[in-house]
User: What shape does this take?
Amino acid sequence: MKRVLSCIQPTGDLHLGNYFGAVQNYERLQASYDCVYGVVDYHSMTMPYKASQLRENTWKMAFYLLACGVKMENLFVQGLVPEHIELSWILGCVTSYGELTRMTQFKDKSDQLRESDKDAFVSLGLFAYPVLQAADILIYRADYVPVGKDQEQHLELSRNIAQRFNHQFGKEYFVHPEPLFTETPKILSPADPNRKMSKSLGEKHYINLFGDEDRIRKQIKSAVTDTGDTPEGEMSAGVQNLFALLKACDNMDAYNSLMDDYKAGALRYSDLKAAVADAVVNLVHPLRENLAALEADKRNVKAQIQANSAKIRERAQETLREVREIVGLIPMK
Ligand code: AMP
Ligand code: TRP
Assistant: This one.
């Protein structure tokens, strides 16, 4: 069975971009692949954070993933599998400084830090982040990685690192992981459809999946449809985004009928927005119930997450034993 791995940072909320770009796929892929999904807390230490908040957000994201249908036995917390860090060091030694400086997410995030403070602290961790991501993937020998479009460059780097490692040590050891995209690999911000939906842009730029239902409706109803820069005869990015959401919610009847209206030049944006708001709220409703059930059993669920991470850790340890041998480290007693 082919292997799938993906990870998500515990940054507080889970938004529609995360869901339709990645998490919905996590759930679906479990039927046909051997899947492992991680909440990557070590990654979240690369931007300014508070220790107590990180711990809380890590649990929160693990609960969200379970509520979205990730099976307990496929879930781990990265901080409970420290072998990722060891592999990251080893892979860092076959990664060049030059290729890391080309990573656009590093540029974006370091610019973002400097925007608020021109002397902002940009850590080695933020720079080395893509190497840790490669370690997350390679440690489980994943064939496929379901992610949003923004992760394409990091995936390419992971393949280059795998290839360089294999070449340097003369052994086809690591597989070359391929990204898996959904039909909606890039959901746009409702407030500015020229940018992708993202938490880092601020609250109005993302729709929180487990947020207040009224807020979800309001944000969809006030989504920007015309930005004034759409070429004649083309559908604007904001309207395309609304149609994409409707399709992602699998509401094809509404999609087809509203698309017919659009083609006939008779689409009312208020109808499209109302349909999208209903579709999203209906989709989220059962997920919300799942979350409430998990929260009612919090202690037990947390204990299971820890126990399962320990089990998944054994797979990582097996890879590390082999890697240590390949790279010339002395075996552990
Ligand atoms: P992050 O919150 O940045 O850790 O992202 C978690 C997952 O969601 C990754 O696979 C991203 O590629 C994906 N993702 C983030 N933002 C979007 C978006 N606006 N559209 C589609 N996928 C996204
Ligand atoms: N870098 C990814 C993001 O920002 C999160 C991530 C970390 C990841 N490790 C990964 C995604 C491994 C896929 C596979 O969204």
Q: What stands out?
A: The first strand starts at residue 3 and ends at 8. Residues 236 and 286 are 32 Å apart (CA to CA). The two ends are 33 Å apart (CA to CA). Residues 199-292 form a domain with the Tyrosyl-Transfer RNA Synthetase fold (CATH 1.10.240.10).
